[in-house]
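Dear Dr. V.,

Thank you for agreeing to look over these. As mentioned in my earlier message, I'm a first-year student in the group and I'm still getting used to reading structure tokens, so any feedback on how I've presented them would be very welcome. I ran two proteins. I've put each sequence directly above its structure. The first is here:
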Amino acid sequence: MATEVLMPRQGQSVESCIIIEWKVNEGDVVTEGQALCEVETDKATFEVEATASGTVLGIFYPAEADVEVLKVIAAIGEPGEDISAMRPTDDAAPAPAAAPVEQKAEAAPAPVAAPVAATAPAGSATGVSPRAKNLAAKKGVDPTTLAGSGPNGRVIERDVAAAQAITPAAAAKAAAEGLPIPSTGTGMGGRITAADLMAVAPEAVGEAVAAMDFPGAVKEIPVKGVRKVVAGRMMASLQNTAQLTLNTSAEARSVLGYRAKCKAAPEESGVGGITINDVVLYATVKTLGEFPELNAHMLGNKIVEYGNVHLGLAVDTPRGLMVPVIRYANLMSLKQLSAEAKRLAKACIAGTVDPDALTGGTFTVTNLGAMGIESFTPVLNAPEVGILGVCAVQPKPVMKGSEVEFVPHMGLSLTFDHCAADGAPAARFLVSLKQKLSAFELTLAG
């Protein structure tokens, strides 16, 4: 009897998954445990494995389909078995089916290969000589776009020397809009830039623009997966909460000094990987212990304050923003907190994070300091009452008697739900956090 393959449930909060790609076709013989397809939830990516050995008799959903969990997505069995009862009754378009297993056509004789031309077309994968690579790097030329005149179409130095140096943006613009490429450019080393494509006489600008295909190249990106979830949550957060942001800065000499000591410590101490962000997370956890009104959820007609800190950590991933939760962060040492933050961030970036690890946060920290951001307005991860934005370290003038001293300061932006907390306790939270960061080694000793 044929075996059903179900879309598995990945975590209690996951309701559907998007099929990214099928790794098998109908008619393929598979073994139990073999990967059949790769799917994406709103939180992670994983593979669906074969639940039995046999022949793939049916694939019921195509790639890109958004399928509810526990639905039958494929069937495995013996050739000729009836699987009509397993097919879903919804309107999903069936995946392209392979030829029936029982009717394999005999292989047609292979055609005689045509002789290879001495010069290969642009983009051929016949290789690039080392000298050509070096010259291409100096000129800013992509050698894979050139027609090779070397043996078997290989791109050699003279091919690169004869090529125009043009930036990728300029090349794409010229190809998309049919613009002529000038012989020389204004970029570094004479490279042709996108601006050079528009370098025409002032009186001819209007005519040139009118002749272009407006608006030029565009790219449509469907809103789905993580992006769809983030968009929905951010909109709901702004619509359902009274958000207010307070901005300040904390003296960063203590934090920077402690980080330098960690980097210089012996490897066996295990503190070399502690980052400035880890230090901020630790200080935030300690401060939340003093301000339970910010370590809370706003749930309509009630506020839930938590006795433990389950700290959300915003992580930028190739698939979008994800917020894993460091559970019981208040019970961890700095070294333990650092290790757990790195473990969760790595899993998010790799797409292997447990979906349940992305729920249950009581307060969130988001850090844009590494990008040089000096101040921003974080959006609450509702129903949480607070979120801390960490900004770049910048020198700030400080009066020392009659003299002015420039002291490094770290920007801090606290967004809180004014429905659940008032401005005064939120401000006191920032004051306490500043004190802990300004004298971090004393915070560790506390």
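The second protein is here, in the same arrangement:
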Amino acid sequence: MNSSVDPVPHADGGPRLRVGLLGTGPWAHRTHAPALAAHAGSDFAGVWGRRPQAAAELARVHGVKVYEDPDALFADCDAVAFALPPDVQAPLAVRAAAAGCHLLLDKPVATTVGEARAVADAAALHGVASVVFLTLRFAEPTASWVEEQAGRSGWFTASAHWLGAVFPPDGEASPYAASPWRKTKGGLWDVGPHALSVLLPVLGDVTAVSATRGPSDVVQLALRHTSGALSTAVLSLGAPRAAAGVGLELRGAEGVFALPDWSDVPGAYGRALDALVTAARTGKPDARGAEFGARLTEILAEAERSAAEA
């Protein structure tokens, strides 16, 4: 808990976290800020952004303080939520952890192993809780489905695809296309964490990875897991609109199991904040925290190297 603030009690007797938001882009407007404002177990304390005018507008909409300096926000908050490009997020997360703030991170935590590891190490060193917002691990019914499948054994193989039309070859780009890092890093880094966030808890950690690039930002991963199972994942942000979609299928001794549909992303973000509040109160690390985020970055970096050499 940030010792510079005096959090008010929560209804169950624990402290209510004061949460600040860093970032002012489309996701901050549509998901992060509304979920923070609606959360029953914490208080939305303020906003900082790299564009001061956008930060002021977002703060005005939600009736919270706008900050000109991220360190001032850290000093006033117990936790911070990130809606920033990964390589802007990572160094700020290290500073926030050093200031005693718990971390609600976006995926990927960073696009280099060194920066992702620095975030995980900072959270551990300063004793702050961390959670990475991975949609499928917090949305319902997908979150419960992942837990159910993780309890099964005898897995044989799995296949996943996440084909987004953020940069479609056959039409207007999505509102999220104005994102330089997505344009540069593509589907491997943007939606790859989602697929891996399901495959790892069910099949086990990745012990080998190879990757091949195809047309229009397509990357195909081939993975071997500690359980012995093999999996594949096809990822892209440049799919034609008619071909876009998300799916994941697991096959094993108990049968074939398909990922259910989901839709409530703001609700999922609220549950991610619930998980951060719980980890902060109990001191028990969440399995979806910065350490897991760093591992995802390691796998994605290896896949990127493999694709470049193919």
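From my reading of the second output: The chain has a mean pLDDT of 93. The domain at 17-134+266-287 is CATH 3.40.50.720 (Rossmann fold). Does that match how you would interpret it?

Kind regards,
E.
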